Amino acid sequence: MSERRTPDDLELLRNLLGPEGPELSCEQCFAELDRYVELELSEADPDLAVPGMRAHLEGCGACAEDHRSLRALVEAETAPE
Ligand SMILES: [Zn+2]
User: pTM of the prediction?
Assistant: First the structure.
């Protein structure tokens, strides 16, 4: 008896693991926050790199606050003047 993964299984797995997972947890959000802010400020597309982050920030006040202060900090550090 051999077990083979069908494309459907892979699709299911991919849906479970992202990149289009519904939302990050606070822990995942915190872990990716640095990278996310850097990408935002480098005009890359952070939502492509960290899917689910924006949705989480919109739904989670604590992480949104973290995001705002980290972003302000990084902006101040990288300001041209
Ligand atoms: Zn959160």
Answer: 0.68
Give 17-66 pLDDT, tens digit per residue: 554 556 789 999 999 999 999 999 997 899 998 989 999 999 999 999 99
Q: How far apart are the CA of 44 and the centre of ligand 1, in A?
A: 22
* Ligand 1 centroid from CA 46, angstroms: 17
> 7 vs 16, 76, 79, 80, CA distance in Å?
14, 47, 47, 49
pLDDT in tens, 7-16: 677 666 555 5
3-state secondary structure of 29: helix
Q: Which residues surround ligand 1, an ion (CB under 5 A)?
A: 26, 29, 60, 63
Two structure tokens written together for 78: 């990288």
